[in-house]
Structures are given as structure tokens and as C-alpha cells.
Amino acid sequence: MTPAARHEVVLRLDDVSKAYSGTLAVKRATFDVRRGAVNVLVGENGAGKSTLMKIIAGVEQPTLGRIVLDGETVRFPTTADAVAHGIGMVFQELNLFGNLSVAENVFATREVTRGLRGIDHREQERRAAALMERLQTGIDPRALVEDLRIGQQQLVEIAKAVAQDARILIMDEPTSALSATEVEVLFRVIADLKARGVAVVYISHRLEELIRIGDYITVLRDGRITGQAEMREVDTHWIVRQMIGQDAKDFAKGVGHRIGDVVFEARDVSLPRATGGLAVDHVGFDLRAGEILGVYGLMGAGRSELLDCIMGRQRLATGSLTLDGRPIGHLDTTDRIARGLALVPEDRQREGQVGILSIAENLTMASLYRYVRGIHIRRAAERQAVAGAVTDLTIKAADTDLPVSSLSGGNQQKVVIGKALLTHPKVLLMDEPSRGIDVGAKADVFLTMRRLAAQGLGIVFVTSDLEEVMALSDRIAVMSNGRLTALMDRADATEAKVVAASAAGHAPTTPRPTAPAKVSA
Amino acid sequence: MTAVPQPVPSTGPTGGTMLLTLMKLRTFIALFAVLIVFSFLAPNFMSAANLILMSKHVALNAFLAIGMTFVIVTGGIDLSVGSIVGLCSMVAGGLLMNGLALPIGYTLWSSVPETVLITLVLGILVGAVNGLLITRLNVAPFIATLGTLYVARGAALLMSEGRTFPNLAGTEAHANQGFDVLGGGRFLQLPYSVWTLMAVAVAAAYLARSTPLGRHVFAVGGNERAAGLSGIRVDRVKMFVYMFSGFCAAIVGLIIASELMASHPATGETFELNAIAAAVLGGTSMSGGRGTVGGTVIGAFVIGILGDGLVMMGVSSFWQTVIKGLVIIAAVVVDQAQRKLQQRVALLQVARQS
Lengths: 521, 354
Known about the structure:
The complex is a heterodimer of chains A (521) and B (354). With 521 residues, chain A is of the alpha/beta class. Chain A has helices at residues 49-56, 79-84, 102-106, 121-134, 150-163, 180-195, 207-213, 236-244, 303-311, 333-339, 348-352, 359-363, 379-392, 409-421, 439-454, 466-472, 495-503, and strands at 9-20, 23-34, 38-43, 64-69, 72-74, 87-90, 168-172, 199-203, 216-221, 224-230, 262-272, 278-288, 292-297, 318-323, 326-327, 341-344, 372-373, 376-377, 427-431, 458-463, 475-480, 483-489. Helices cover 31% and strands 26% of the residues of chain A. In chain A, strands 6-7-8-3-9-10 form a six-stranded mixed β-sheet, sandwiched between helices. In chain A, strands 16-19-20-13-21-22 form a six-stranded mixed β-sheet, sandwiched between helices. Chain A has a four-stranded antiparallel β-sheet with strand order 2-1-4-5, with helices on one face. Chain A is globular. The two termini of chain A are 26 Å apart. Chain B is mainly alpha-helical and 354 residues long. In chain B, helix 8 packs across helix 9 (212-222). Classes of the chains: A alpha/beta (521), B mainly alpha (354). The interface between A and B is large, with 48 and 33 residues.
């Protein structure tokens, strides 16, 4: 299916590749952005959507390939160059100055000045107020951004991009924190921009949204473009098929080991959200020894927060937790680790590892007490443990005394997993264990999970990857809006059921009848 | 390590790794450079008497710098050490000269060992206040210790209304004689203060390298969130480093009071800056996670010898200040260059092996 040229191509990424240390995020992608249309980009987490957009916005430079704007090859060494060419971007992670007012944020780097008399705050506020009016938000342009709700902040970010009068406007998950009515307003604004000939690039996970407002769709998988079509020619099934692909990933097969007794119980776990409501809403589940429980859900469904509650990182969390029949709800993180809980966090750089310490020091960080006599770290014992972990997890490192940041993403992830395993946990919590690592390392990680489960470890793993949750789990839990909306055995689960449960409680879905999916393995 | 087959080592040290080794040893090189330069330029510089005198001067800064190193490695800063030196020296002096006057009209006299103990505990307590402000009340380390800098200095001045305690010899009646041993005593020609420094430095280096607590200090400084998630009690680690820094400052307060046999409330002003300078010169990273006790001690020697040597050469003290500043800036510039080079070499190694 090739899109008909109803709209003129304004920008083309021509055969673009982007390599980071250790991974290839985008592989030879050719992507057209058409004027006066909404160009939708979809793909699973880590498929390379955000990287592609960062290349257009000048945040990243392509390793190979070129950018063609209005028929001419251009380079955007900095974001300023991209802005000068009329490219605006609404970033997924909000790029706002919390300590400045809404108007100051909207006009950051493009301040309205009156010569030597400095910034014309009144004019900026007037224009910002007009923008807010257009977005029907009612946000005071003088309010500090940090005082706004996340949804309102997202609207400010959108207003900032709209104010640039961009010819090409990239929106990376603009609705992730918006309410249903705010989404409606945004869609009206997008329709308005389209009418004025602006090319909108729209990234989202919410398929119903895409189908509603998209004109062209491009699907990315593992950094490759797997499908390009006009939106009216495709349906959800087509999109999902392109996203997931026919070729199954290399999931380790279960070895049919015995599942043991209940080792961990969570009851009524709740966590208040800073902006009101509950981030985790009365979630409860059991976990048996040797069982892999997959927790599926969209971004912001409360999955990571649930793991945080279990690890004791949230002081405001309520509910009861039992490990091996003993309550652990009153313990701090250190004691929970000592009792047999361990977490592999989602964000490796920020929470998983200490980048400047060595591979060995990172591996033994959580289990140091095991190699200590009195106050002395027994080097021999420590080195033995490190060597064991390196072999077990097939960590590819020249020297374990090198800083952990010198490793590739997949090997860093293995180090973080190794750190958790060296504490000899009974229950292992893994938050997006395959995020941002290459295919080979993914296969190793999945294999490790299987092997650990076979040894009697209980594993809870969180993922936004439907295929992963279907292939690896013994049971599947689905979260949506902080609630546990489904908990089913793998045998009873279908992709349709899982997806339906993950959307429960969200904005009204499209009237399109959801035919029973036949894609499950 | 044993588990992975070692790649064949690259053929000989390349230019990059040579330069890197030189940069890593820069503090050593600087130390030898100042020693050699001054042994030519300043008469009597290398005499035993002068070296011992210099080591006595250096020891004071080295104590503070060792404590400071641990604080900086966790990503913090301790500006209060100079004031703790002053407060501790005043408390020790006050106890020895005037005793502790109880409100019931009776004066309590402490022996010299008791006085030393009380003073050390006081230093640790001030450090604990710093730690509590930082961990419990979330005050930024710079501000928290700036606050205690003023409070401790003010308390030192209040103790004597700003006057000096002139005579700490003690009396036989109060059984508190012999305070001069700490600052004036010698063993095998070396002053006790230098021996104490060796003991503290060795203990601190052991702590940093071979104990879980030391490892935790580095982990907290490298990535606090990851450390916490690995089961390290971050707050306790921070409490420890500020208490240890206070302990080191108390030692310095005692040594100064004992050397002078008098305590003055302004003792230790700007000592914190010299301590930070020594730590930075020794390779401690202000952003946390990196630093060694050995490097810091050498850094303290470089600064101290530079100062004393310039005095012996007759350079004006104004120029000394300028030179000290330039040396510190140069050290940090080289440190940055080293880090960049190190990253390149590490990447090269990774690229070669794959």
C-alpha cells in the first residue's frame, strides 16, 4: 500500500539510520511528512519513533541518510536550526521551566522586547492569553508552570509549539496526560492547523485517537518502517499487525516446570497521586514460586508505581504486603531486599546503576553484606560472586573493573539484573526489562527469566509490549488508570482481551466494532 | 577477571594511555615538582627540621581535607569545619582553664583525656546536626553547613566574650595537667599530630576501600537513587560523612589548642576553603562519586609545601594567595581533561574488543 499523493511532501527523511553506543535505534527509515495533513507515527516502545522525531527537530543528528526539506537537503545541527526552518516540537517529556510563568515559557528564546527597555511582559501575557483562549484552557498566563497540573502543563507545551507558527509541528504523545475534553480541544486545534497548511506529525499509543485524526500512517518496528498507508485504507488490525510483525521475537519457551506455593501477596495496595486521585487503586494479587506474572498496561497505568509501592519507595502507599507468609509492609527498602524482594528498575541510568563505579562494584552493590567479615569486604569472595554473575548472565565485559557506563545497553541491563540476583531474592520485580536493549540481549534476558522461574523464583514483570506479555507470562495482569482491570491465566488470555482491559476506564473508544482478534499465538 | 577470556592486551601503551597515566599521577608529580623546585630555590628547605615543621602545618589541613573528601564524594560539601575547629578548641580550652560551672555553684573539672573525649564528641555532634539538617529537613548541604558555620563560630565567640583562653596548662589541684603533649610531644622525632594523621589517614583509606560503608559512600555520590534502590540507607551514609568530618575538625581544634596552649575563638577561619582545595587538588570530584584519601593527603601536602616554600623564598603572602588559586584552577582543568581522555580510551577499548 503506497499512499496516494493527495498532499504535497514537505519534508522527507531519506534512508535515515541512527546509532547509539551499542544499539541501532533507527534502521534505514524513509519517512514523508505531508503538508496540510496529520502524519501519524506508531510503534511499540523502543521502536524508534521518538528518535526519528528528534532527528527532525534537530535534537539528534542522523548517523546515515539525509533530511530533505522542500526538495533541498538540509542539516539541523541544533534545535535552533530546525526552528529556523519552521519545525516545532511538543516533547513527550515536558520541556518547560517550572520556575517561570506560562507566558514566559511560551515565549522562551523568542521574547517580545521593546529595545533597551527589556521584555514586554504585558504584550507577552496578552498573546499568551489569546493562545490559551484558543486552546480553551483558561490557564492564567501569569501562573507559574510548576503550579499547574500535568495536563495543563502539556497544554502549555502545545501552546508554545503552536505560537512558533511552525510549518511542521511534531507532537510526541501530546494526549498522554490530557482529560477527554482537553483531547477534544486539542483535536479542534489540530484540525485548524491542518486547514492552514501545517504539516502535523502525531505520535501516540492510543489507536482510536490515531484513526480518528490521522490522514497518513507510518508504522515503526525495531527501528524499521514496516508499513506506510493512507489512514482511510487501514484498520486497527492492519496497524497492530504491522506493529507486532509476523516474525516472532526470540522468546525462550517455557520448560514446563512445576509452579509452587504462594510466595508473595499484595492486598489493597493504593497510592495517592500528587495531583489528586489514586496512581495505584486498590490493587491485589498473589504470586507463586516459579511463576512469571506479566503486568501489561499503557503508559501511566500505574504499573511502575505499583512496583515502587511493593519495594517500599512510596511512603504514602497503603495496603498489605506479605512475603513468605510474613508481613513486610512496615519495612523500608533495605529490609525488604534483605527479606527477598529485588527490583530491576525501568530507568537504568537514573535508578539502576551507578555509572561511574565499576561493573564489579555495581554487581555487588546490593549484596555486599554477603562478602563481609566484620567490617572487611573479602575481595576473594566478592570477585567470585562477580565472576559467577558474569558467566551466568553472559555479560560481555573485557574487565569488570571498567566503569559500568562503558558497556552496551544490553550488558548494562544484565549488570542491573545481576545486582538484583546476587541478593538471592525470592521475588524479582522487573520494570520493562527489555527496554532499550538490542534483540540479542533481549533474548538473553528472556532466557534468564525462564531459567530463574524454573529455579523457583517468583517474577513480576511490567511491560507495554503485548507480544512480550503474551509469550513470557504464566499469568497476565492488566492495569489501567491505576486499577487492576484483569487477571487471567495465560491459557485464557487473548490479545483482544488484554488490550480491552488495558483501555478500560479511558476516553470513549471509537464506535468501530471490535471483532474478536485471531492473532494470538 | 577470571570468568571472561581476556582480550589480547593492546600492543604497548599508546600515546593516549601514557598521557592518561601521567594525568592520573598529576598530584604526585605536582608534589615532587614543588619539593624539587624549593630544594633548589629555598635554603634549608630539605633539612629535617624544616620538613618536620612543614608536616606539622600540613597535618592540620590534611585532617580536615580527609573528612571533607568523604563529604564531597557523597555529593555534599561541609563549610562548617573551620568553625568546628574554633568551637572545639574553645571548649577544650574552657574546660581546662575554667572547668564546667554548674548552676548549683559547684565547678566540675575534667581530666585531659576526658576533655579530649568531650571535645571529639562535640565535633561529632555538630556534624550530626549538619547531617540531620541535610537528611531530615532537606536543606541543601551548602546552606546547612553555612548555617552551622555561623552558629558554631558565634558559639565559640560567646564562650569567652571573644577573648582568648590564655593558659591551658592546668593545675595539679584540678588534676588536668599535660594538655601540651598532644601538640608538643614527639615520638621518633615526629610530632604526635603527624602520627595521629597517619593513623586517621590509614583508617580512612581502609574505610573507603575495604568496608561496605566506604563503598556505600561512593555509591551514594555516584547515583543516590540507584543506591537507595540497591538497599543502601542513603540517609545514614550522609549522617556518617558529616559526623566524620566534624570528628576530624575536632581533632584539629584540639591540636591547635595544645600547640599554642591557648584557645582563640577565631581559630580555624577559612580552614574549610583550604580543606576543599586539598581535596579537589587530590582528584576529588565536586559532583560526587570520585576521590581518594591518598590523593587528598598528597593534595594537602602540595598546598602546604607550596605555602611554606614560598615563605622561605621570601615571596609576598599576597602572591602566595594568587599562586595557590592558580594551582587549584589548573588542577581542576587537568581533571576535566583527564576525564574526557579516560572516556575516549574506555570507548576505544570497548570498540577494539567487539
